[in-house]
Amino acid sequence: MRHRLPALVAALWWGSLTTIGFLVVPLLFAYLPSPSIAGNMAARLFAAQTWVAVACCLVLLLVSRPRNAVAQYPWAQAAMLFILGGLLLALLNQYGVAPRIVARQDLRLWHSVGTVMYALQWGCALVVLWHTLRQEAALPQCEGGSVSA
């Protein structure tokens, strides 16, 4: 089960980014009575998403190498830059961009910057998920077709 944890965590990270950013927030703006109410709720959801991203990245960093080993797993070597990049993007978006949007400071610019950073984080999460799934496919199969423990 431990070898599946990176793929599950990466799927949670990517799936939560996808759900919040591409489904829930657009629905808020489509169905809530005013853009102000939708914007306030979207800000709360994006803040919660930041903590999901931070938790997922920290778990991925913690399970990136075997116990008492110096070398990382192959999936982690390939994905490390994207884990750290996604973590940095999430934190920069939350603490660098979001306060400027809330303060209504040059909204067009900061909304664009935040959107690009969110999309880049989504891409980082997708690359990490891809590498963890490649690791899953490389595991030995037992005769019944299920992955051996």
Keywords:
149 residues, mainly alpha, 78% helix, single chain, 0% strand, elongated
Chain-wise SSE layout:
Blueprint: H1 5-31, H2 35-62, H3 74-102, H4 107-138
Note down, in words, how this protein is organized.
The chain has 149 residues and is mainly alpha-helical. The chain has one domain (2-137). The protein has 4 helices and no strands. The model is unreliable at 142-149 (pLDDT under 50).
> Helix/strand/pairing class, anyone?
mainly alpha
Instruction: Kindly report the average pLDDT value.
Output: 91
Query: What's the structural domain tally?
Result: 1
By DSSP, the count of extended strands is 0
Radius of gyration: 18 Å
Low-confidence stretches: 142-149
Task: Classify the oligomer.
Answer: single chain
Summarize the structure.
This protein has 149 residues and is mainly α.
